[in-house]
Amino acid sequence: MSGRDVVLVGCGRLGSAILEGWLKTGAVPPERLIVLTPSPKPASEMARASGGRVNPPLDQLASAGAVVIAVKPAIWRAALAPLLPHLAPDAVMVSVMAGVSVAATSEGSGGRAVVRLMPTTAVAQARGVAALWTDDANAAAVGRALFAPIADLVELADEADLHAATAVSGCAPAFVQAFVLALAEAGAAKGLSLDASLKLARGALRSAAATAETGEPLEALIDRVASPGGVTRAGLDAMASGGVSDLAAAAVEAAIRRSREIG
Ligand SMILES: NC(=O)C1=CN([C@@H]2O[C@H](COP(=O)(O)OP(=O)(O)OC[C@H]3O[C@@H](n4cnc5c(N)ncnc54)[C@H](O)[C@@H]3O)[C@@H](O)[C@H]2O)C=CC1
Ligand SMILES: O=C(O)[C@@H]1CCC=N1
Questions:
Q1: What is the pLDDT of residues 165-201, one digit of tens each?
Q2: Atom 5 in ligand 1: which residue has the minimum CA distance?
Q3: How far, in Å, from the CA of 100 to the mean position of ligand 2?
Q4: Pyrroline-5-carboxylate reductase dimerisation domain location, by residue (predicted)?
């Protein structure tokens, strides 16, 4: 892959985040970047301004070593079809799509090798996390080269695990943010101004993330905040009796079900 172009197909929520991460870190030099997008996006314009190519003639795809598929699972076949005749046989397909299997992606891309990743949008800040699975060693190396600079990689033993990995990583920032929003609304219901409550809750989210990044076990981090017999413990007990574990399990279960459906 070294020295070959990288094609990004789709520059929406996740595609833009990936592009921003690459531009920020230099993981993919802009002169090697080809972005395919039906409409200009701030990230694609940033790539263009840095020397990347946006929607060039398709014959330029011939030198690509990797094609990152960042379109919706419902349209990937239609999006790829016009590109396939222009791609080298050894171009690796790098799918970040939820649900779509390696076998289906390979079959729909002329039998090319495929690696699947499930990143979070914090790849934009080069602080994402991404599950990775493939059965092809070269494709794995390509996936690592593209994503290790912008995400912590978690390599899975089994492709089926990607459904659960999607729930606990790709989707989970939104789950956590929804909880923090609910906390802020609960604070406002108890007399804080909504503005103050939102600022406090966002700060708490940032604080939780900063301490989590130390790598210490989550139980230890929780214990450090929860003084015995204190205020946090009272709140944690209320969360447990309110079924917080069941709520998390329901979110994961629903996301897994949907991931299986859309594949
Ligand atoms: N948003 C997220 O946090 C995550 C998304 N994903 C996956 O990433 C993929 C994209 O999701 P989002 O970015 O959320 O969707 P999105 O709808 O924001 O982006 C999809 C983009 O594809 C573009 N597109 C449509 N037809 C195209 C074509 N023929 N060629 C090139 N681009 C085309 C659209 O203009 C759009 O900007 C999905 O498969 C999803 O499962 C995976 C992990 C996280
Ligand atoms: O909501 C979705 O379908 C995508 C996949 C994981 C996160 N966002």
A1: 999 999 999 999 999 999 999 999 999 999 999 999 9
A2: 14
A3: 12
A4: 159-261
Range of the domain at 24: 5-159
112 & 205 share domain: no
Bridge partner residues of 133 (DSSP): 116
Q: Measure the CA angle with vertex 75, ends 71 and 79; round to 5°.
A: 75
CA distance 73 to 242: 36
**Of ligand 1's atoms, which has the minimum distance to the CA of residue 39?**
35
Same domain? For 127 and 202 the reply is no
Whether residues 16 and 142 share a domain: the answer is yes
Cα 96 to middle of ligand 1, angstroms:
9
Q: For the chain, where are the E strands, in sequence order?
A: 5-9, 33-36, 53-54, 64-69, 92-95, 114-119, 128-133, 151-155
Ligand nearest to the CA of 175: 2
Interface TM-score (ipTM) > 0.90: yes
- Does residue 98 line the site of ligand 2, with CB under 6 A? yes
Query: For residue 45, how far is the Cα from the chain centroid?
Result: 21
Over the stretch 211-236, which tens digit does the pLDDT of each residue have? 999 999 999 999 999 999 999 999 99
Whether pLDDT at 59 is above 70: yes
